[in-house]
Amino acid sequence: MTAISKPQTSMAQAGKYLTFALGDEEYGIEILKVREIVGCLDITPVPRTEPHVKGVVNLRGQVISVMDLRTAFGMNEVPRTEQTCIIVLEVRRDGRKVSCGMVVDRVREVLNITESQIEPPPDLGAAVQGGCILGMGKVGDRVKILLDIDAVLGFASEGAARAA
């Protein structure tokens, strides 16, 4: 994963998380940041952007940027399937609401994760920054990596801005 500089003081809070998978790994994002989930749309590439920024889509008249989370996390690209989808997120950027999308392999479920199920991110050492990880959600015998989606998307936005 690419280094993202952010203090390690962030911690996931109990609440509802949309879980999704990239390969065998499962992740979660706060449900309040999710606007909708759509099937894969035709993505228009934008020149001179980072490899994880796939381009833009026209979603009911609104043009939104789309990133591929696999590529952003340094994972190999895989062919799209009928389960591949775009999670459309709504985040605040410079005091205004911004919509953007991220391509994931498949959406799993919405989980209510309690405080007792969440552990802080592990110390990954100096070689890997875990700044986009809020915590680890222990659900049954599985671990869901709870993402700070603002940090993930901020990294993508910074990369796109540098390329322009």
- Globally, the shape reads globular
Major β-sheet annotation: 6 strands, mixed
For this structure, the CATH topology is: OB fold (Dihydrolipoamide Acetyltransferase, E2P)
CATH C-level name: Mainly Beta
The pLDDT mean sits at: 84
Distance between the termini: 23 Å
Strand content: over 45%
Number of DSSP strand runs: 11
Query: Class by helix and strand content?
Result: mainly beta
C-alpha Rg (nearest Å): 15 Å
InterPro entries: CheW, CheW-like_dom_sf, CheW-lke_dom
GO cellular component, one term: cytosol
Protein name: Purine-binding chemotaxis protein CheW
Pfam families: CheW
Question: Which secondary structure elements does this structure contain, and how are they paired or packed?
Answer:
Layout: E1 15-22, E2 25-30, E3 34-39, E4 53-59, E5 62-68, H1 69-72, E6 85-93, E7 96-104, E8 106-113, E9 118-119, E10 133-139, E11 142-147, H2 149-163
Parallel strand pairs: 2-11, 5-7
Antiparallel strand pairs: 1-2, 1-8, 3-6, 4-5, 6-7, 9-10, 10-11
Q: Brief description of this entry?
A:
By secondary structure, this protein is mainly β. The chain is built from 2 helices and 11 strands. It has one domain: Beta Barrel (OB fold (Dihydrolipoamide Acetyltransferase, E2P)), CATH 2.40.50.180.
Textual characterization of the structure:
The chain is mainly β and 164 residues long. The protein has one domain: OB fold (Dihydrolipoamide Acetyltransferase, E2P). It is built from two helices and eleven strands; from the N terminus they run βββββαββββββα. It has helices spanning 69-72, 149-163, and strands spanning 15-22, 25-30, 34-39, 53-59, 62-68, 85-93, 96-104, 106-113, 118-119, 133-139, 142-147. The strands form two sheets. The protein has a six-stranded mixed sheet. Strands 3-6-7-5-4 form a five-stranded mixed sheet. Strand 1 (15-22) and strand 2 (25-30) form a beta hairpin. Residues 1-9 and 155-164 have low confidence and may be disordered. InterPro entries: CheW (IPR039315), CheW-like_dom_sf (IPR036061), CheW-lke_dom (IPR002545). This is Purine-binding chemotaxis protein CheW. Pfam families: CheW.
